[in-house]
Amino acid sequence: MTKRIFVGIILVSFITVLACTGLVMGVMYDYLGEKIDDELKDEAKIVEASLKINGVSYLEQLNQNNKIDSRITLIAPSGDVIFDSEADSGEMVSHFERKEVKEALSEGEGYAVRKSDTLAQDTRYYAIRMEDGNILRLSSSHYSQVALIADNFGIVFLIIIVLIVVGIIISARITRSIVRPINNIDLDSPDISKNYEEIIPLLHRIREQNNKIHIQMEKLKKQQNEFAVIMENMSEGLIVVDKDMEVLACNNSAVNMLDAKGYNKNENILGLNRSQAFRCVVSRSLEGENCRDILSINGFIYEVIANTVYDGECVTGTVLIIIDVTEKEKGELLRREFTSNVSHELKTPLTTIYGIADMMSGDLVKSEDIKPFANTIKEESSRLVTLIEDVLRLSQLDENNVQDEKESVDVLNIAEKVAKRLAHEADKRGVKVGVSGSHVRILGISSMVEEIIYNLCDNSIKYNKEGGTVQIKVDKIDDDCLISVEDSGIGIPKKHLNRVFERFYRVDKSRSKVTGGTGLGLSIVKHSVSYLGGELSIDSDENLGTKVNIRFKSV
Q: Which residues have C-beta within 8 Å of that of residue 244, sequence separation ≥ 6?
């Protein structure tokens, strides 16, 4: 910028000097022409006055004595030359068509300028019509504009050089003084009051741009912090790796999952885990293949998913996501156990039914034994139907495929209904069932709430003591409905409490043959409570009884 300003000032100065020189020369030329015209006019008047007195002989005398510098020509009205101070009048052509002559004849006086490129001179003519009709013309030659400049070229050139040198010095100082405030501008916080008015709009733009950049930087920092917070609070492990296997980003979940607590960030990814499966996933991903594999670390099972990152067609890195699938794998194990248990539970009554049917078809059953065998078939079929219904019920709950719509239901009324249904069974076992509390309504499914309370009470009766009690209580606490089923039965050992709601899980397998049931009742309770948006808890002491609490939102 400094150079451009400097060159610009010098160029303007040079052009100005040349223009001024030309203008001065032009003015001088015009001034000289006007002076010559005035002199010619004055001389013409003097000569005219003398001619009136002395005649043409006066002109010859002037010419002989060289008392006048101008050329004098006397011309007849016809254009013929009567006298010329520098040429033989007899040999001169008619001057009738000359501009100054024609003007003098018509207007009394005339002017004309004729240029001579050969001699680099301009000749100025002044003609006046005398009283006798003759035309008196005086002329004088002087330098043309080009000749005037050429004649004074030396001094003009010297003046131009001096002016250019002075201009360079002044331009340098002016340039520095112009640029200094601009160079001293604080771009982070420009002071508009201390700078040129012409650049104030630019400073405003700089200030606005600084504000935008500041806002964008703050936004980027916020996004970066949010990304860091999200990464660090992800339950899944996240690792970003470049093509050289250097870790660009890694959250704490990944470090903890891979059990690499001594790992330093921005190192090679193999510092996190050197197992064959992990190395294979990373290598395959950096070769352009999206892949996944399973890692088993410290009793946990993790799935590693690697997605290749491309820049155009080139692999630039990979992103690894590590997911804890321990529960999923355990669920798969439970599913296999559930399938095995269902097969076993179905096989037992079917075997009994098949055996009796086989005996009856072979006439191996006495007539008096047919009725007991028929009752056995009925009981086993009923057990089979109940098991199938419970399995289907669980399947519906797992898939949220319950057809009934939720509605407002009175929990205390349902509890009383359940107590009546189980009264006969309770009497058989010598157990007393009581219901207390207040009428609280929840948003639920009446049949499902009844099934929950029924299964809990049925278990409390089956696993109770002779003369024991089962107490169903419904209360409203704040905005919640609390249902509790408490018994004075044999209780559950602490080590089994966290598993009693699993499918087909039995604390005492030998006792289950006596009490009957499918082993799915408490599992149905757990899934039903979850479907209705409730919370379930259990507390029990061996030989002291069990208490199950269920909490729903009241309406």
A: none
CA distance 284 to 66: 118
C-beta neighbour count of 200 within 10 angstroms: 13
Q: Pick the closest to residue 58 from 91, 39, 85, 81 (CA basis).
A: 85
Single-letter amino acid code for the residue at 168: I
For residue 365, give Cα distances in angstroms to 29, 152, 361.
156, 155, 9
E strands, 298-440, are 300-311, 314-324, 407-410, 432-437
The answer to whether 288 touches 275, Cβ cutoff 8 Å, is no
Q: Which residue has the tokens 């704040």?
A: 478
CB atoms within 10 A of CB 425: 14
Question: Pick from 16, 9, 15, 11: which is nearest to 179 by CA?
Answer: 9
- In terms of Cβ atoms closer than 10 Å to its own Cβ (0-12, 13-18, 19+), residue 348 is middle
Q: To which H or E segment does residue 225 belong?
A: helix 200-233
Whole-number Å distance between alpha carbons of 493 and 488: 14
- Phi/psi of residue 431, each to 5°? -115, 140
Q: What is the mean pLDDT of residues 329-334?
A: 70
8 Å CB contact between 13 and 163: yes
3-state secondary structure of 323: strand
Mention every residue, 6+ apart, whose C-beta is less than 8 A from residue 444. 406, 407, 409, 532, 552
What are the helix (H) ranges across 246-363?
252-257, 276-286, 326-361
Using the structure block, give the residue that is written with the tokens 């001389």.
Answer: 43
In the block, tokens 């299964």 appear at 455
318 contacts 238 by C-beta, under 8 angstroms = no
Distance CA 499, CA 477 (A): 28
Residue 407's contacts (CB-CB under 8 Å, 6 or more residues apart) are: 443, 444, 445, 446
Integer CA distances (angstroms), 96 to 76, 93, 102, in order: 9, 9, 7
Query: In the Cβ-directed half-sphere of 352, how many Cα atoms lie within 13 Å?
Result: 18
What is the CA angle 528-531-533, rounded to 5? 110
pLDDT band at 148 (very low <50, low <70, confident <90, very high): low
Other CB atoms within a 10 A radius of the CB of residue 503 amount to: 21
**Cα–Cα distance measured from residue 36 to residue 44, given in angstroms and rounded to the nearest whole number:** 12
Task: Tokens for 256, please give them.
Answer: 């903890």
Q: Does position 514 have pLDDT exceeding 60, yes or no? A: no
Burial class from Cβ neighbours inside 10 Å (0-12, 13-18, 19+) for residue 149 reads middle
The pLDDT tens digits of the residues spanning 38-58 come to 888 888 888 888 888 777 777
